[in-house]
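# step 3/5: fold
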Amino acid sequence: MERGLIAANAAGKKRGEEFVERLTPTGGTNINDSLVQSLKQFEKGDRPKMLVFMTDGLPTVGETNVDKIIANLKNAKTVDVRIFPFGFGYDVNTTLLDKIGTENSGISEYVQPKEDLEIKVSSFFQKVSSPVLADLDLDFGPLLTEYTYPRKLTDLFRGMQMTIIGRYKNTNDLKNITLKLTGKAGTESRSFNYTNLDFPVRSDENSFCRVSGRAAASAGCSNRSATTARQKKSATRSSNLAHATVL
């Protein structure tokens, strides 16, 4: 295995193919060491860095504890690398792969046994090859939030929808609130404001508030009537659950 990245030219691809052909199955899956060693391939710099991690099994060799694998990955990550887990088949730890993806600005994908592998992989690479917004941050303004998920916002790619779920705990009604989404499109900083949003302490009809906008195009603003039209009703009377979606 090389100590660093190699050029993706004909000679480099040939070396990669020869390396793969020499691999032999041993019946084990060492997720911890493969991730840690892969991170050593990257060097610091402004160039976007992405790691696609593919696996068809559970961790059975080396470190197998999920929490320790996550901790070891965090300690080994010295540069900003987006990690995209790719699980094949049913014998994978989806909790582990989802956590690796969400905590490292990536997204996880899964291929079931009867799915077309080529179509799935091609679709994935087509999506991640067209980044729209990176290093996202959502400013909730006066809204006091807790239990938000995902804890770290992932990058937005073309055709991708982002959903943020959490609770707000304000003790008074909030009206005409603005949420501000910021990020980077290449090296340019961008911001998008979502205005005229209401967050009541209690309501029978607004258990879930949905905020939508097309971040890839321009700074979209959803007015109150548009927001109300997209509200989801719930059987509960509590109104401190919020579901914000950026399209």
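# step 4/5: annotate
The helical segments are 10-21, 31-39, 66-76, 94-102, 117-128, 224-229.
# step 5/5: archive (pending)
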